[in-house]
Amino acid sequence: MLEFRLRQDIKLKLKTGGFTMYSILKECEDFKDLQFVLKARDEKSFEINYTVLWIVEDDGQKSYMCSDGYRIHFALCDKNIEVGSYAVIQTTKEIVLKKTSHEITVFDYNSVIPNQDKRIYICDTIDLKSKYVDKGEELSRVIAKISLANNEKAINANFLKDVMVGKLKVYLGEKNDRVSIYFEDTTKKAVVTTFRLYK
User: Fold this and answer.
1) Which residues touch 120 (CB under 8 Å, ≥6 apart)?
2) Which of 173, 183, 64 is nearest to 128 (CA)?
3) Domain count for the chain
4) Does residue 185 lie in a domain region?
5) Is the per-residue pLDDT at 138 higher than 70?
6) Are 87 and 127 found together in one domain?
7) Which residues of 98-116 are buried (b: 16+ CB within 10 A; e: fewer)?
8) Is the pLDDT of residue 30 over 50?
9) Are 39 and 53 in contact (CB under 8 A)?
10) What is the CA radius of gyration of the chain?
11) Beta strand pairing status for 178-184 and 119-124?
């Protein structure tokens, strides 16, 4: 096995079997962002698209991406990792990405991100300062009122808890006449919905 370091915090392992593995260590600046992205992965799904991590590229910028069909999480990827789909092994100290050997077509993730002119700012996650209620639950109550006013079901509070990382801006978004909640900061973004994103 050939092994060498990339930028001192990510290892690339090449085996003679022809597959590629990347090991992102806990010390890596991407580690926490990757943990954020992986919360949207559905490990038990029968649809392989929802079980893998994607490296996608738009306008020359790579991102990590996962979706379980109802939400989608992104984080910027500045590593030299090949675009495509990856199986994931996750521990508290390391996240290992193994390039999948079969062809999987990535879903149209851009079709669910609300356009700039279709976003209404709600709040910053850091501004939710309730002493007695989890921030995810607090935000879910705010969003439930908005969702009901727009004839949508309430959004899963656990999905909202999963995006309560750092200071993200929270928007009510609209895409294809459906309401979603859009989150973003300088390195991460997410879309959470009450409906199936891809059919």
Assistant:
1) 171, 172, 173
2) 183
3) 2
4) yes
5) no
6) no
7) bbbeeeeeebebeebbbee
8) yes
9) no
10) 18
11) unpaired
Taking a C-beta distance cutoff of 8 angstroms, is the pair 194, 151 a contact?
A: no
Q: How far is CA 38 from CA 1, 2, 66, 98, 139, in A?
A: 28, 28, 6, 14, 21
Question: How much is the average pLDDT of 37-63?
Answer: 88
- Tell me if 172 sits within 8 A of 164, measured CB to CB: no
Specify the range with the lowest mean pLDDT, choosing from 65-69, 133-137, 191-195: 133-137
User: What CA–CA distance (Å, rounded) separates 27 from 29?
Assistant: 6
Residues 101 and 122 in one domain: no
Q: Which two tokens stand for residue 187?
A: 């390195």
Task: Locate the DSSP E strands across 7-141.
Answer: 10-14, 20-25, 53-58, 61-67, 71-76, 84-90, 94-99, 119-124
Residues 83 and 115 occupy one common structural domain: no
Task: Confirm whether 199 is domain-assigned.
Answer: no
If asked whether residues 27 and 73 sit together in one domain, one would say yes
**Domain match, 103 and 38 both:** yes
Residue 43 belongs to domain spanning: 2-107
Beta bridge mates, 112: none
Residues 172 and 91 in one domain: no
For residues 107, 183, 174, 50, the Cα torsion angle rounded to the nearest 10 degrees is 20
